Amino acid sequence: MSKDYEERIWGHFTVLHDAGNVKVKELVVKPSHCLSYQKHSKRSEFWVIQSGVARVVKNYSGAKDNDHTTILQAGETVSIPVGNWHQVVNIGKEPLVIIETQYGEACDEDDIERQFQ
């Protein structure tokens, strides 16, 4: 596999474009799997659902019990501002495919803080 492809417990991602302060990835999330509840201090993200059904959880304030949940399907989008807690869950029976555009001061894998619920 290419160095731009990484397997994860939830599925895999492929880096499609990397220009330092902008990165585009294709995320493929297995059915009944999710990414960790996380936030980033140096980047925002914009997701386009390519296929599948996603439950997206966002928390604008960081306060416990202030999560907002949205169900998204193919063609729908969501913006995740820098510093916002967020998570995506594949609630469908098929792989969930997301095109993720990261943008900001730095778009690297080290800019992540996870919270385990």
Your description of this structure?
By secondary structure, the protein is mainly β. The protein has one domain (5-106): Jelly Rolls. Helix content is 0%, strand content 57%. It has no helices and eleven strands. It has strands at 5-8, 11-18, 22-29, 37-39, 43-51, 53-59, 68-73, 77-80, 85-90, 96-104, 113-115. A six-stranded antiparallel β-sheet has the order 1-2-3-10-5-8, with no helix packed on it. The chain is globular, with a radius of gyration of 13 Å. The model has no long low-confidence stretch (mean pLDDT 92).
Looking at the structure, the CATH topology is Jelly Rolls
* Total number of beta strands: 11
Which structural class fits the helix and strand makeup? mainly beta
Assign the CATH architecture.
Answer: Sandwich
- Mean of pLDDT: 92
Shape: globular
CATH class: Mainly Beta
Computed CA radius of gyration, to the nearest angstrom: 13 Å
Number of helices: 0
Largest sheet: 6 strands, antiparallel
Written as H for each helix and E for each strand, in order along the chain, the element string is EEEEEEEEEEE
Helix content: under 10%
State the end-to-end CA separation: 32 Å
